[in-house]
From TrEMBL:
<dbReference type="Pfam" id="PF17854">
    <property type="entry name" value="FtsK_alpha"/>
</dbReference>
<feature type="transmembrane region" description="Helical">
    <location>
        <begin position="112"/>
        <end position="133"/>
    </location>
</feature>
<dbReference type="InterPro" id="IPR018541">
    <property type="entry name" value="Ftsk_gamma"/>
</dbReference>
<dbReference type="InterPro" id="IPR027417">
    <property type="entry name" value="P-loop_NTPase"/>
</dbReference>
<keyword id="KW-0547">Nucleotide-binding</keyword>
<dbReference type="InterPro" id="IPR050206">
    <property type="entry name" value="FtsK/SpoIIIE/SftA"/>
</dbReference>
<dbReference type="Pfam" id="PF01580">
    <property type="entry name" value="FtsK_SpoIIIE"/>
</dbReference>
<feature type="transmembrane region" description="Helical">
    <location>
        <begin position="153"/>
        <end position="171"/>
    </location>
</feature>
<keyword id="KW-0238">DNA-binding</keyword>
<feature type="compositionally biased region" description="Basic and acidic residues">
    <location>
        <begin position="781"/>
        <end position="791"/>
    </location>
</feature>
<dbReference type="GO" id="GO:0005524">
    <property type="term" value="F:ATP binding"/>
</dbReference>
<dbReference type="Pfam" id="PF09397">
    <property type="entry name" value="FtsK_gamma"/>
</dbReference>
<comment type="similarity">
    <text>Belongs to the FtsK/SpoIIIE/SftA family.</text>
</comment>
<feature type="region of interest" description="Disordered">
    <location>
        <begin position="780"/>
        <end position="799"/>
    </location>
</feature>
<feature type="domain" description="FtsK">
    <location>
        <begin position="511"/>
        <end position="715"/>
    </location>
</feature>
<feature type="transmembrane region" description="Helical">
    <location>
        <begin position="79"/>
        <end position="100"/>
    </location>
</feature>
<dbReference type="InterPro" id="IPR041027">
    <property type="entry name" value="FtsK_alpha"/>
</dbReference>
């Protein structure tokens, strides 16, 4: 079956080579390795049982003559192998034990082949050494003679005709004896996994033992004689000792010659180097090796690395499968404990440090003048690790069952595939399948609903092809989702080592890796998601990430919350530039202030000949580091400019209340604010075309889409479908600037008590300071309320925009999706329009994402089906 193709990571058939070069296994790969190891254990256990019991049966057949069929098997056994038949049963039992104790599945075939060849060599060797010739006239008579002699235990039986007879014919008795003995010796080494250094070590043991015994006896005799003469410990008679002999103390401390022996393994080149997987076995069996080392060897000088390594190889004995499994469980438990919550005594927040400032504005060691508290990051202890843990056995069973069903479902529809990889993420598991030659990717895409039905999945997402791989990725929801907490993201090396002050924790990708982003490089972010998709949780995680990574002097926040309940928790934290904005008109004023601040910063950059905020702050820092009397008066009172992050929730409400003012400010900030250090995160529940206009989209290239209601909404926010198939609760597609294919990620979760704990800590350590000038400027930039249309007032013509082509656009879309023809000339004929008006309608439909751009003479691509269009119209 395709699921069992070679190279699969979690299927039954093993990879031919372990991927040990990777320094750290992926989290999702752990489940795959566990499933693969379980399959291999069953395979080895099955064949070891078969060979063991067959060997025991062969042992009885060899020695017990019996009657009937048993007698025939007894004679056949002896006739085939002759005198070498007594080696057959022990060899089968030995091969069974080797297979049971070896971790490599391919040794089943290898050991059986080696054992079979060794039996043929044994039969030939017996024939050459015992008989020395093959009697008989014709070819068949010689074969019959070999068989009959074998029954009587003379010669090597019929099996000796394979190697013994040809060697006798070619090299005669002497030459054939030498050659077959060398070949047999080689296969014995292969079967026993004995290397040449180990062989020389074994051969040198008797010689080393005898030399050591002679040396010890000689030293004992000398010491005994010196004791009799009264010289032991007498410093005056030290020179009377026999020349060349060491002092008694030195004799006791000196390592005997046996321990200082020449190690033959150092001078033997072992071409068969230990493979990486065998090194892994030695490491796994290290506990047994350490127990088996003799005490005398533990006292040896361990600086001799070569000798120590040889001793380890010498003492290597394969553990049984139960011991290795127990050790593996211990290792896995240690890995799992790496992400466990820290103890109560760890990560306690330090008390605020105090910097003493003297009257000249310089730091000093003495406690005088003004004391300025240094910002202390919130402790990570207030955040929680996820409590829910999933049993690995359940995960393995789920992956095994779904991979089987997936391949079988595709095969039913005539699509032959093989699984090349499985990656389990927190929410979904991606099964990577390589189609057989001649299978079209479009056919797999068309089977999405059928695959979801057979897998009993809520929805599936197909990525065809997977970037950088010759395969199709099918993302199937997990039966039980792994929770991802904000704690494990913020407490990770990826987040801690990030340099940008606007770094935020995005979540965990489908391979279990932690993904972080930097808003300063995006430079703005657009977030969309329906109710229950986790949009507000994601925006909260962005704010929390900034609070943990930057001080109030480095980053200032402007939080705009038309819902009035989402960001109110953050009121009066030191990072806020102004209080949390809930009034849409005041939000427009805050955006207007940001535009004015951007212009002021650019004028300052121009005056000081710098290009961006980073260069300006570096210049100001260098100037302030000078002595007070050398500082330029123009820079004396200047402070470092902080980065400003504007977070807007429910952008659609702002567009409804003050659409023109908000859109103008957002477009200007999107175009120019990056170098000024002003960045935006805009979140909306309704990614409609009238909310996220073309100009806004073009100036905010980085996107995050959580679950949306339709394919049209997905195309508006991500410029492609797929977001409508997300699972909600933080399951998102992340597409930063420069990335063509969205990355599927599970965002981190922090509940309200955790956020309150962080906010309370910040409030207790630092107080919020709002600038009266900024507050007044925000009030000045607020747009005037619109007059009621029924009151007869003269409203601004820009506030109410009536598009006379709205009805025609709906008709044109209906014509296009129903006929599959998206051309200007076709619309002219169907709707009886002029060319300019039809062209304008086609451009508007293209901006909505319903049709693709014009590509020369090729027809436009239609991104919407007729059913989706009817559903979209019904929701209006």
């Amino acid at each position: 079956m395709a699921a069992n193709a070679p190279g699969s990571k979690t299927t039954g058939r093993p990879a031919l080579k372990k991927q040990t070069a990777q320094s750290s296994p992926k989290v999702s790969k752990a489940a795959q390795d566990a499933l693969n190891a379980a399959r291999e254990r069953e395979f080895r256990r099955f064949w070891s049982y078969i060979l063991f019991f067959t060997g025991v049966l062969e042992l009885f057949i060899t020695f017990i003559r019996g009657d009937g069929l048993w007698r025939s098997l007894h004679d056949l056994n002896r006739g085939l192998f002759g005198l070498a038949v007594f080696l057959f049963a022990p060899m089968m039992i030995y091969v069974a034990l080797m297979i049971a104790s070896n971790t490599k599945k391919n040794t089943v075939v290898a050991k059986c082949v080696e054992g079979g060849v060794l039996m043929l060599l044994s039969s030939g060797m017996v024939q050459i050494l015992q008989v020395g010739s093959v009697q008989g006239g014709s070819f068949f008579k010689k074969l019959k003679g070999l068989y009959d002699d074998g029954v009587e235990l003379r010669g090597g039986g019929l099996a000796s005709a394979v190697l013994g007879w040809p060697l006798l014919a070619a090299f005669k008795r002497l030459g054939a004896s030498i050659i077959i003995l060398l070949i047999a010796f080689t296969f014995i080494l292969l079967l026993t996994d004995l290397t040449l250094p180990q062989l020389f070590k074994l051969l040198s043991r008797p010689f080393v033992a005898s030399v050591e015994a002679v040396r010890t006896d000689r030293v004992e005799r000398v010491v005994a004689r010196q004791e009799r003469e009264g010289q032991l410990g007498n410093g005056d008679n030290e020179m009377r000792r026999r020349p060349g002999l060491p002092a008694p103390a030195a004799m006791e401390e000196t390592v005997p010659r046996g321990k200082q022996r020449v190690d033959f393994a150092k001078f033997v080149t072992d071409d068969d180097k230990v493979p990486e997987h065998e090194v892994e076995e030695i490491i796994d069996n290290g506990e047994t090796i350490a127990d088996d080392i003799k005490p005398s060897r533990k006292k040896r000088d361990l600086s001799k690395a070569e000798e120590v390594s040889v001793e380890i190889i010498e003492e290597e004995t394969p553990d049984d499968s139960e011991d290795r499994e127990e050790l593996k469980k211990i290792i896995e438990a240690a890995v799992n404990r790496k992400n466990s919550p820290a103890s109560d005594n760890e990560d306690k927040p330090d008390l605020p440090k105090v910097v003493n400032i003297n009257s000249k504005g310089q730091t000093t060691m003495f406690e005088e003048d003004e004391k300025i508290p240094v910002y202390v990051n919130p402790p990570v202890d207030v955040l929680k690790y996820p409590k829910k843990k999933i049993d690995k056995a359940i995960i393995e069973a789920e992956i095994q069952e779904k991979s089987r069903k997936l391949v079988e479902t595709l095969e039913v529809y005539g699509v032959k595939t093989r699984i090349t990889g499985i990656f389990r993420g927190p929410s979904v598991t991606r099964y990577e399948l390589q189609p057989a030659a001649g299978v079209k990717v479009a056919k797999i895409l068309s089977l999405a609903d059928d695959i979801a039905l057979n897998l009993a999945a809520l929805s599936i997402r197909i990525e065809a092809p997977v970037p950088g791989k010759p395969c199709v990725g099918i993302e199937v929801p997990n039966d039980v989702r792994d929770p991802v907490s904000l704690r494990e993201l913020i407490d990770s090396d990826e987040y801690r080592n990030a340099k940008g002050k606007l770094t935020f924790a995005v979540g965990k990708d489908i391979e279990g890796k932690i993904v972080v982003g930097n808003i300063a490089k995006m430079p703005h972010l657009l977030v969309a998601g329906t109710t229950g998709s986790g949009k507000s949780v994601f925006t909260n995680s962005i704010i929390m990430s900034v609070l943990y990574h930057a001080s109030p002097e480095e980053v200032k926040l402007i939080l705009i919350d038309p819902k009035m309940v989402e960001f109110k928790l953050y009121d009066r934290i030191p990072h806020l530039l102004i209080p949390v904005v809930t009034d849409p008109l005041k939000a427009a004023g805050a955006l207007g202030w940001a535009v004015n601040e951007m212009n002021k910063r650019y004028k300052m950059f121009e005056a000081n000949n710098v290009k961006n905020l980073e260069e300006f702050n570096e210049m100001l820092t260098a100037e302030h580091s000078k002595p007070v009397d050398e500082i330029d008066p123009m820079f004396a009172k200047m402070k470092l400019m902080p980065q400003i992050l504007i977070v807007i929730d429910e952008f659609a409400d702002l567009m409804m209340a003050a659409g023109s003012e908000v859109e103008d400010s957002v477009i200007r900030l999107g175009q120019l604010a990056r170098a000024a250090g002003i960045h935006m995160v805009i979140a909306t529940q309704s990614p409609r075309k009238d909310v996220i206009t073309g100009l806004i989209k073009s100036n905010i290239p980085s996107r995050v889409s959580l679950s949306v209601s339709s394919n049209v909404d997905s195309r508006v926010i991500m410029d492609q479908g797929g977001a409508e198939k997300l699972l909600g609760n933080g399951d998102l597609l992340y597409k930063p600037v420069g990335v063509k294919t969205p990355i599927r990620i599970q965002s981190g979760f922090a509940d309200t008590p955790e956020i309150k704990s962080v906010v309370e800590f910040l409030k207790s350590e630092h107080s919020a300071e709002y600038s009266a000038d900024i507050m007044a400027e925000v009030e000045e930039n607020m747009p005037k309320p619109k007059e009621d249309k029924k009151s007869g007032g003269n409203s601004d013509s820009e506030d109410v925009i009536i598009n006379p082509d709205d009805d025609l656009i709906d008709q044109a879309i209906t014509v296009i999706v129903s006929t599959g023809n998206a051309s200007t000339s076709y619309l002219q004929r169907k709707l009886k329009l002029g060319f300019s008006r039809a062209s304008r309608i086609m451009d508007q439909i293209e901006e909505m994402g319903i049709i693709g751009p014009q590509e020369g003479a090729k027809p436009r691509k239609i991104n919407l089906t007729e059913e989706e269009w009817l559903e979209m119209r019904a929701r209006r």
